[in-house]
Specification:
about 450 residues, alpha+beta, 3 domains, five-stranded mixed beta sheet, three-stranded antiparallel beta sheet, 15 helices, 8 strands, BphY/WalK/GraS-like, protein kinase activator activity
Length: about 450
């Protein structure tokens, strides 16, 4: 009996997992924000707020009079929109977390909250019935569908509460009219939600296509690189038959082959980054210290000075589940960004300017990538892990760190960044340690070669 029970339980669990895996491609696009707000889009919406509210005050007061209007309320709402236009902190690109919060609150106050208030204050008449219904659809297009869903619920409740406390006395609707309004609002809410989900999914598919194109372009670069490798082999063969020029030709061939290796490594990195939206399963049990040592040793440094500044320090090793190939690309991305930050400083490179450390903290595996580069601004840090957001707009496409975060999250971990502009940056990766090795490994005081 117990064996039969556990067999049935096992089969049921497998069916649940299979169903969850089947639904994942459908649900994942709905549950993940993709793009950061567009500056032009925010400005256009703010201009609509600034101009629209005074304009409708004039229309509803002088041309098509409504039961309730308030000039000071209209001007206050208009001022909220104006604040988003004139504040440099709120219009910076990429927007900071503070800016995103303020923008979200302003649109919530000016749309669901204010429109619900006016709907009740005007006795739920035909004009404001239609206006509030339109607001449902507008709000879902103005902001993310998750924010819109929560915002509409909070706006309806908040607007009704304000009306109950401070609103004018109005004639109540009949039961049939109230039910009619509820049905129409429910339909508008549902369509707004569906359109929001559809837009999110469309943006995701567009990004997948763009990333796929990037991967194809990177792959096509291998053909001229293969030609360069053949030229290097030909130069090396010529050096063998020309003793007087052998040294120079051998050096040229070595440089050509090194360039081909480095370019192929960069192509591998870009192709892997192009898998941002669909990562393969991560089920390998790997050693953190071993993976990082191999990644740092194999990294395509531009010169020997870069190689010497990188150090690996292992206090206590641990193992975790991931894809070794994908996590190696995570380390490559972080090392590449750190070396770029170091190259932007005027100081000469020295050993220890870039340190990758491995340790255990309270049973959690911790990997730190610390550099003494130019650092990252607070504004850039707030959205650093979002696709197409880069702290280095001149050379970065903004996919590397987004890819890193997705791989680390898939491994059950987290990644955070701490930085002081001008003093460097530290990326901290925390991972669930499967096997722990409490004995201290020798700390590497020299660079990895």
């Amino acid at each position: 009996m117990p064996a039969a029970f556990w067999n049935r339980w096992s089969r049921s669990t497998m069916r649940v997992r299979s169903g969850r895996d089947a639904l994942k491609p459908l649900l994942e696009p709905m549950l993940e924000p993709i793009l950061h707000p567009s500056q032009w889009r925010i400005r256009a919406l703010c201009i609509s707020i600034v101009i629209g509210h005074p304009l409708f005050y004039v229309i509803w007061t002088h041309f098509l009079p409504q039961p309730y209007e308030s000039l000071w309320q209209r001007l206050a709402v208009s001022a909220l929109g104006l604040s988003l236009l004139v504040s440099p902190r709120l219009t910076a690109v990429p927007p900071s977390r503070f800016a995103v919060t303020v923008i979200t609150l302003v649109f919530w106050a000016t749309l669901p909250l204010y429109f619900t208030w006016m709907y009740f204050c005007n006795g739920r008449n035909a004009v404001w019935f239609a206006t509030l219904a339109a607001m449902f659809l507008i709000y879902y297009h103005v902001t993310d569908w998750r924010v819109a869903t929560i915002g509409i619920a909070a706006g309806l409740g908040g607007g009704w509460l304000l009306f109950a406390l401070f609103g004018p006395t109005v004639q109540p609707l009949t039961l049939e009219e109230s039910l009619t309004h509820a049905v129409v609002f429910s339909f508008c809410w549902y369509m707004g939600l569906m359109l929001g989900l559809s837009s999110s999914n469309l943006r995701r598919e567009q990004i997948k296509q763009a990333l796929g194109t990037m991967g194809i372009m990177a792959h096509e670069l291998r053909t001229p690189l293969a030609t360069m490798a053949l030229i290097g082999d030909a130069v090396r063969s010529t050096a063998a038959t020309a003793p007087t020029e052998a040294t120079g030709l051998e050096q040229l061939a070595t440089r050509l082959h090194a360039l081909v290796r480095n370019m192929n490594r960069q192509i591998d990195m870009q192709i892997t980054n192009a898998q941002l939206m669909h990562l393969p399963p991560q089920t390998e049990l790997v050693s953190a210290a071993s993976l990082i040592r191999k990644a740092v040793a194999a990294f395509p440094y531009r010169n020997e000075r870069e190689r010497e500044c990188a150090q690996v320090r292992v206090e206590r090793d641990f193992e975790f589940n991931t894809s070794e190939a994908l996590f190696t690309q995570v380390i490559d991305n972080l090392v590449k960004n750190a070396l770029r930050a170091l190259a932007a400083t005027p100081a000469a490179r020295s050993p220890g300017d870039l340190v990758l450390s491995v340790d255990l903290e309270g049973g959690t595996g911790v990997i730190r990538v610390t550099d003494r580069g130019v650092g990252i601004s607070e504004r850039a840090m707030s959205r650093l892990f979002q696709p197409f957001v880069s702290s280095n707009q001149g050379t970065g496409h903004g996919l590397g760190l987004a890819f890193c975060q997705r791989v680390i999250l898939a491994a059950g971990g987290t990644i955070k960044v701490h930085s002081v502009p001008g003093e460097g940056a530290e990326f901290v990766i925390r991972l669930p340690a499967r096997n722990r090795f409490p004995i201290k490994h020798p700390t590497l005081k020299r660079s990895i070669s």
